Amino acid sequence: MSYLVVQNLVKRYGGVTAVDGVSYRIEQGSFVSLLGPSGCGKTTTLRCIAGLETPDEGTISVADKVVFSSDANVNVPVHRRKMGVVFQNYALWPHMTVFENVAFPLRVRRYQRTEIARRVHEQLEMLGLQGLERRFPSQLSGGQQQRVALARALVHDSDLLLFDEPLSNLDAKLREQAIFELKKLHKKLGKTIVYVTHNQVEALAMSDVMAVMKEGAIRQMGPPREVYNEPEDQYVATFVGKANAARGRVTTSEDGRVSASVGDVAVEGVAQHDRMFRVGEEVRLFFRPEVTRVHASTEVTGTNAWVAKVDSVAFLGEQTEFELSLGGLAVRAVQLSMSTIREGDLVVISVNPNDVRIVAESQWGEA
Predict the structure, then answer these.
(1) What's the pLDDT tens digit per position in 278-305?
(2) Given a cut of 80, is residue 179 above it in pLDDT?
(3) In 3D, which of 314, 348, 352 has the Cα closest to residue 334?
(4) By three-state DSSP, how is residue 226 classified?
(5) How many CA atoms lie within 13 A of 334 on its CB side?
(6) If we measure between CA atoms, which residue out of 327, 340, 185 comes closest to residue 265?
(7) Alpha carbon distance 150, 145 (integer Å)
(8) Nearest-angstrom CA–CA distance, 274 and 287
(9) Disulfide-capable partner of 47 in 28, 52, 264, 265 (CB 3.0 to 4.6 Å)?
């Protein structure tokens, strides 16, 4: 059953359309990320769901209850939507202690004092904040502030949690730790989460479903592995990860297997969605740097094995990244170990045909 349903959502600011006909359905208990660059409409969409912005058009339903409808003139106020929101800057009251910040939503809803204390201590204990009740936000680390904001969102039994880039202010190590903590917390609580981020790692690591947005619209939505491995167009392919792509012409196409020529280079791959191509049709060939193998020997032969020149090498600790020239093509590759290959070397790069996707040129579009 769909728990959150957004239909034809539109939000304008003057002559600018920030959200342009967004529609999706979210199942109960799922973790959904809205992923995209600044200005793509993801935060505005989230704020419309929360009731912090009033859409110009569309419908929003939660648990079969309409909380906004432009046609029916329904707009349920924020405090009656039973949603918890965690903001990018956490929005903690600086003059309130940790306890008072977490208790605030309960006091607004006029809970009894004993019930407030019980709920607050329960959330603080679950998030490892016990003993910090009397501290002020300025006395907490970034990670602790993030957990206080999360406790405040959870304390009044929110069925739907909305996150607006909550990890963007954390350093790399804390962000990595927080990703795993949020993932475990979601599994434990089973809450429905809508998570806004511009960080592809966060979206890929935590989501059941991710929606890639651009210019107020969703370009592709699906499970992270599907979006990553089978992007619908160039924008999705290059925003979610890194991509090697080239224009080619089909030489053979049968049973989902496609051969294409890219200049003097022959490439074999898989037709995305089992599409049939005509011989001579112009297509795009797409494969990820991490499936591109670099061989020090130039004697490696076989399907999708080509001699290339190493233009640059970057050692990044657990992996080495290469930029290579293959005819007139620039190719990127990633190795998960140290390498003795140097700039200027001639090498062989190879890609399994199952890792090459063939997409119609008309579908590929612009990044």
Answers:
(1) 999 999 999 999 999 999 888 888 899 9
(2) yes
(3) 314
(4) helix
(5) 14
(6) 327
(7) 9
(8) 17
(9) 52
Q: Tokens at residue 357, please?
A: 């996707």
Q: Both tokens of residue 242?
A: 């890194």
Closest listed residue to residue 330, CA positions, set 356, 305, 312, 316: 312
Q: Which residues contact 179 (CB under 8 A, 6 or more apart)?
A: 167, 201, 202, 205, 206
47 neighbors 226 (Cβ within 8 angstroms): no
Give the rounded distance of the alpha carbon of 223 from its chain centre: 10
Location of structure tokens 């795993």 = 180
Give me 199's structure tokens: 């960080």
Alpha helices in the chain (DSSP H): 42-50, 98-108, 113-126, 142-154, 172-189, 200-206, 224-229, 234-239, 361-364
d(CA 122, CA 188): 14
Most confident of 78-87, 301-310, 336-345: 301-310
Residue 128: CB atoms within 10 A of its CB come to: 12
Three-state DSSP at 8 gives strand
Please compute Rg for the chain using Cα positions: 25
CB 83 within 8 A of CB 50: yes
Two structure tokens written together for 269: 């791959």
Residue 255 backbone zone (phi > 0: left; psi -120 to 50: alpha; other: beta) = left
